[in-house]
């Protein structure tokens, strides 16, 4: 029987409709949850509750990268400020050691809810990092 090792968390890429420069240092917040609704039937002789699924949702996803002369993420966020909401589909792709796609998570109708600029320190040689927080309307997994 072949051993199956876990995939490494550093080997990922992000695809955003309409934005070509998508090399990110970090991606966080990928999750999916369903609220639980408690219900007790009026004729139930016990004091127990039934648990039913409520609304499903996903957290905002945060992408971080070294800031460059490429303004595409800033422009996307700025379009929200100017009232021109541009929803885009987004894929977060986990790859194996050979760079082959293994798992793809698709986020539907994503748009930037927040942009964070870099911190500055004249005594440091660290890369200036920008962060984009995206809200979306659901996540689905493919190629798993």
TrEMBL record:
Transmembrane segments: none annotated. It comes from the Bacteria. It holds the Pfam family Phage_T4_gp19. InterPro entries: CHP02241, Phage_T4_Gp19. GO terms for molecular function: structural molecule activity. This is Phage tail protein.
């Amino acid at each position: 029987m072949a051993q199956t090792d876990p995939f490494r968390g550093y080997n990922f890429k992000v695809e955003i409709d309409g934005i070509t420069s998508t090399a990110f240092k970090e991606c966080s917040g990928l999750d999916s949850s369903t609220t639980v609704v408690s219900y007790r039937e009026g004729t139930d002789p016990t004091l127990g509750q039934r648990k039913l699924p409520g609304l499903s949702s996903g957290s905002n996803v945060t992408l971080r990268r070294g800031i460059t002369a490429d303004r595409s993420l800033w422009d996307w966020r700025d379009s929200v400020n100017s009232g021109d909401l541009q929803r885009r589909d987004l894929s977060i792709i986990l790859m194996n050691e050979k760079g082959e796609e293994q798992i793809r998570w698709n986020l539907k109708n994503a748009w930037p809810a927040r942009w964070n600029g870099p911190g500055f320190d004249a005594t440091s040689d660290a890369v200036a990092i920008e962060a984009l927080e995206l809200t979306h309307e659901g996540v689905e997994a493919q190629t798993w």
